[in-house]
């Protein structure tokens, strides 16, 4: 892949209003990042969202330079060293930045997540479980937060651990984990989906959680309240087809109500690394994409779009998520034309994308 193509793809991925699904559709439709950028203005005009502007190329070049300067790397979906499990997500995160030993992602990975205000017992369980998983040949993945995350990373430092962060690869959050982050990038791996220098915001953490579970065969929840980010991670893991496990806790502790609830809902009860390994052993090392766009016998140059096509697709959309193949079948419009028009409708805010390559009506 040429430097110009890499810059074009990062531009597209970093553009406000272009999510992973829209990004993947642009590449599928136009074949390259450079071609997608060329088509972008027309697609935006067709959507009626004239205020959408491409992320500047000079910012992307600076991001590559700054990332390279600290010894980190930007990896694009489609690159040879892009993590295999992550690549099977539909859609896969378009751009990740890695700092450290990417070979750790070639081993089977297990995510350990839990409360930031974890009890001493939960911290001990997380540390020991991570230590034993590392010694058992597994890579422990967590989010570099306080509490369970910190204990999990510390327990697996000697065997190599992966910290997935919400901010830019150079950003430290929380600040007190700067030393731990430095230890991890020296012996393990730090991963981010955000641009270099980005300060994490609340809406960045669900994306971070999707990365944590997407890199892993399964996720273990160790202490989680009823409303917590760990439960969001568990739900995301289920959507990705990952195994969900939970450590039981005292019913007298509010910090365990969410994790105990997961067990009542069907999550596998685990108490140690041996039980975790037993639970994920049947899991396939990779999973097939849930979404594949059928090939159409149409040349991009021959595609023509009418208001009738647009109206039929809008009519086919509903609040219930569906695939492009289903929309194509319902409307009689070839899937490639559906994909292009859905990009416009997504930019316009009429259609919305969901994990698994699904789309639904937004309003």
Please tell me about this protein's structure.
The chain is an alpha/beta fold and 363 residues long. The chain has 3 domains: 3-83, no CATH class; 99-280, Rossmann fold; 303-361, Orthogonal Bundle (Arc Repressor Mutant, subunit A), CATH 1.10.10. It is 44% helix and 13% strand. The chain contains 15 helices and 11 strands. The chain has helices at residues 3-14, 20-30, 33-47, 57-69, 84-87, 120-135, 148-155, 178-187, 205-214, 229-239, 257-264, 273-280, 307-316, 324-331, 335-348; strands at 73-76, 95-100, 109-114, 139-142, 161-165, 189-192, 218-222, 243-247, 268-269, 351-354, 358-361. It has a 9-stranded mixed β-sheet, sandwiched between helices. It has a two-stranded antiparallel ribbon with strand order 10-11. Strand 8, helix 11 (257-264) and strand 9 (268-269) form a beta-alpha-beta unit. Helix 1 (3-14) packs parallel to helix 3 (33-47) and helix 9 (205-214) packs across helix 10 (229-239). The longest helix has 16 residues, at 120-135. The chain is globular and about 60 Å long.
Main β-sheet description: 9 strands, mixed
Task: Report the count of strand segments.
Answer: 11
Share of β-strand residues: 5-15%
Give the terminus-to-terminus CA distance. Answer: 39 Å
How many domains, as an integer? 3
The name CATH uses for the topology of the largest domain is Rossmann fold
Helix content: 40-55%
The CATH C-level name of the largest domain is Alpha Beta
Strand order of the largest sheet: 1-2-6-5-4-3-7-8-9
Radius of gyration: 21 Å
Q: Structural class, from helix and strand content?
A: alpha/beta
- Indicate the CATH architecture of the largest domain: 3-Layer(aba) Sandwich
């Amino acid at each position: 892949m040429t430097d110009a193509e890499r810059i074009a793809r990062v531009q597209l991925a970093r553009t406000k209003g272009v999510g992973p699904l829209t990004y993947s559709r642009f590449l599928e439709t136009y074949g390259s990042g450079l071609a997608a950028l060329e088509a972008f203005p027309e697609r935006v005009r067709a959507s009626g969202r004239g205020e959408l502007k491409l992320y500047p190329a000079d910012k992307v070049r600076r991001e590559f330079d700054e990332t390279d300067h600290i010894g980190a790397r930007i990896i694009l979906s489609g690159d040879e060293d892009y993590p295999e499990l992550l690549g099977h997500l539909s859609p896969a995160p378009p751009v990740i930045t890695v700092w450290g030993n990417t070979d750790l992602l070639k081993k089977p990975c297990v995510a350990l997540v839990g409360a930031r205000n974890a009890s001493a017992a939960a911290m001990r369980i997380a540390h020991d479980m991570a230590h034993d998983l590392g010694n058992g040949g597994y890579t422990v993945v967590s989010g570099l937060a306080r509490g369970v995350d910190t204990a999990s990373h510390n327990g697996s430092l000697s065997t190599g651990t992966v910290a997935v962060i919400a901010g830019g690869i150079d950003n430290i959050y929380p600040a007190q984990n700067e030393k731990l982050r430095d230890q991890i990038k020296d012996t393990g791996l730090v991963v981010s989906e955000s641009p270099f220098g980005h300060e994490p915001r609340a809406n960045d953490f669900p994306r971070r959680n999707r990365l944590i579970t997407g890199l892993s065969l399964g996720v273990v929840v160790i202490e989680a309240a009823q409303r917590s980010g760990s439960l969001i991670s568990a739900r995301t893991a289920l959507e990705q087809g990952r195994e969900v496990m939970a450590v039981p806790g005292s019913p007298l502790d509010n910090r365990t109500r969410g994790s105990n609830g997961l067990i009542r809902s069907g999550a596998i009860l685990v108490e140690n690394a041996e039980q975790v390994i037993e639970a994920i052993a049947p899991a396939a090392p990779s999973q097939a994409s849930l979404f594949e766009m059928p090939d159409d016998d149409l040349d991009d140059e021959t595609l023509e779009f009418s208001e009738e096509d647009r109206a039929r697709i809008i009519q086919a959309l509903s609040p219930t998520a569906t695939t492009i193949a289903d929309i194509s079948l319902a409307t009689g419009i070839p899937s490639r034309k559906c994909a292009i028009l859905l990009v416009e409708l997504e930019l316009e805010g009429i259609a919305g994308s969901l994990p698994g390559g699904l789309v639904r009506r937004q309003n």
